[in-house]
Structure formats: structure tokens, C-alpha cells
Design goal:
The chain is α/β, with parallel strands linked by helices. Helix content is about 30%, strand content about 25%. The protein is built from 5 helices and 7 strands; from the N terminus they run E-H-E-E-E-H-E-H-E-H-E-H.
């Protein structure tokens, strides 16, 4: 069949792929977040918690948790035809932090997931991304039964720079997670524009 003059063959779009990390303390919901939004079956590297690990695994506040991520979680989400996000969930326990350097290579930005019941558990992730100048947003995972605090209170408690976005979210809800990821992309783009402006002035 011949194409008319006004018809055009649609050229396939080669999507831009962006890498985003999902970090935070043990049991904060990183695996849940990646699973909630990924359009593919997430790759998970979870192992059962054991008695041998009990002295080093602080499960207070997450007593119902029986597994832990030992390497990473991986998922993918297409935001637009020309924009695909790869999500890498980092391990939350200190003994697996050596993986973070490898996972953060080439990352556009990060989500630091926080639980207001154990807010101190995300200090290490905040410090990690600040020291490496990787743009990040803090996503406060609103667990059932946990006290709700305004974003300003969380910002103050974590001693965040004014420009770091703080958003309330539900790591189980796809639309809520998508809003967090869009926030990461926007924040990272704004940070890159600021850096370019400083170079040219």
C-alpha cells in the first residue's frame, strides 16, 4: 500500500534513560516503592533475616519484617515515550553500604525514603548524597499509625538545605510514587541548570 502525501511513517523514538536511586533506612519501604511503580516485574535481591544477623539488624519499629535487601532492587517506569526511569533500591543495612558507590554511578538523582517513627535511620542517606552532590528529595512514607508531620518539621529535624524538596507519600501507591519520581527529575534538572549558570557567570 502506498502512503499518501500527507501520511508520514512514524519514526521510533529512542528514549532517554535516567537512573534514580531509592535509599533510606532498614524497613522504610524501598522495595515496596520500586514494586509499586515498576512496569516490569522488579528484580529483588532479598534474603531472610536470620538469628545470626539479629545483633546487627535493628528491627525495632519493623518487627514484622522478615527479609532484607542485600544488593539492590531494580525496576523501570516509562514516564513518556521518550523518557524512561530506571530505579535502583539500595540496601538499608550498614553492612551492605559498600554497594552504594557502585549503584550511584551515573545517577541523575535519588529519593531518600523516611519513616517519621525512625527518622534518624535516613541520616546516612542524606549525608551520602549531600557529600557527593547528588540531587535528592526526601519522601516521607506515611505508614498507618505513624504520626503525621508537616514537611517543614521533617526538613528541620533532618537539617536539610532549603532547596531539598520534602514530599509526603505512600510507597504502596503507584500515583503517589510517580509524583515523588517526577519531583526528583525536576529537582535534578533545576540543580543542573544552576550549576551551568554558575559555570557561565
Amino acid at each position: 500500500m502506498k502512503l499518501g502525501r500527507t501520511e508520514r511513517v512514524k519514526t521510533p523514538v529512542e528514549p532517554v534513560t535516567l537512573k534514580i536511586l531509592v535509599a533510606g533506612g532498614f524497613g522504610v519501604g524501598k522495595t515496596t516503592l520500586v514494586g509499586a511503580v515498576s512496569e516490569i516485574r522488579p528484580l529483588r535481591t532479598e534474603e531472610l533475616l536470620t538469628e545470626a544477623g539479629r545483633p546487627v539488624d535493628d528491627t525495632s519499629g519493623v518487627e514484622g519484617k522478615h527479609t532484607t535487601t542485600v544488593a539492590m532492587d531494580f525496576g523501570r517506569i516509562t514516564l513518556r515515550e521518550d523518557l524512561v526511569l530506571y530505579l535502583f533500591g539500595t540496601p538499608g543495612q550498614e553492612r551492605f553500604w559498600f554497594m552504594w558507590d557502585e549503584l550511584s554511578e551515573g545517577a541523575l538523582g535519588a529519593v531518600v525514603l523516611a519513616d517519621t517513627r525512625r527518622l534518624e535511620d535516613c541520616f546516612a542517606a542524606v549525608d551520602y548524597f549531600e557529600r557527593r552532590s547528588i540531587p535528592f528529595v526526601v519522601g516521607v512514607n506515611c505508614f498507618e499509625g505513624a504520626a503525621r508531620y508537616p514537611a517543614t518539621a521533617v526538613r528541620q529535624a533532618l537539617d536539610l538545605d532549603h532547596g531539598v524538596p520534602v514530599v509526603l507519600c505512600d510507597a504502596r501507591d503507584r500515583e503517589s510514587v510517580k509524583e515523588v519520581l517526577i519531583g526528583v527529575v525536576q529537582h535534578a534538572m533545576a540543580a543542573a541548570a544552576t550549576r551551568r549558570q554558575k559555570v557561565t557567570t
